[in-house]
Specification:
- The protein is built from six helices and no strands.
- Helix 1 packs parallel to helix 3 and helix 3 runs antiparallel to helix 4.
- The mean pLDDT is about 80.
Length: about 160
């Protein structure tokens, strides 16, 4: 699941909550940090989510998306004063920030390593080459002879010299 909706939604929720709390504590350093780190984590999450394997940790990412929608709905309900205790709320901010951290970790974990990508690209190239090449009798004979050599050859598997 290559989704960028959840990190964007969580970053928006965190930034809106931080800006809502600014009028109460009037500390620009705090609000700058509260805005910078969610945006930074969203950027990291999106970068790694787009590089991730399709379907890796899909259930976890879907659950995080659902929780992001819930956090956004609570923020919107609080912002509209229908449920005024949800905006500005430091608990909603921390929940969105925690979910963003979890999403970033899951995005990094679902990204294949360099060995896996090299192995996958090598396997893809080999599959493509095998699909285009038709085996001949000589090629089959050579592979049978090579397999017999690997299995022990004509000496029954006992090698007495280092030839």
């Amino acid at each position: 699941m290559k989704s960028v909706i959840a990190p964007l939604l969580l970053a928006v929720v965190a930034v809106v909550q931080a800006l809502g709390r600014y009028m109460y504590h009037q500390d620009t350093i705090v609000v700058t940090g509260q805005m910078f780190f969610p945006i930074f984590l969203a950027g990291i999450s999106i970068f790694y989510a787009l590089r991730a394997k399709t379907g890796a940790y899909g259930t976890v990412k879907l659950a995080l998306l659902i929780l992001a929608v819930v956090a956004a709905a609570l923020t919107a309900a609080g912002w509209g004063m229908a449920l005024f205790w949800f905006y500005p709320s430091i608990w909603i901010y921390y929940a969105a920030f925690l979910l963003l951290v979890v999403y970033a970790v899951v995005s990094v974990l679902s990204t294949p390593s360099a060995k896996q990508t090299a192995k996958q690209s090598g396997a893809d190239e080999a599959d493509e080459a095998d699909a285009h090449a038709e085996p001949t009798e000589g090629a089959r004979g050579a592979s049978v002879a090579k397999q017999a050599e690997v299995d022990g050859g004509s000496d029954g598997g006992w090698r007495t010299t280092g030839r």
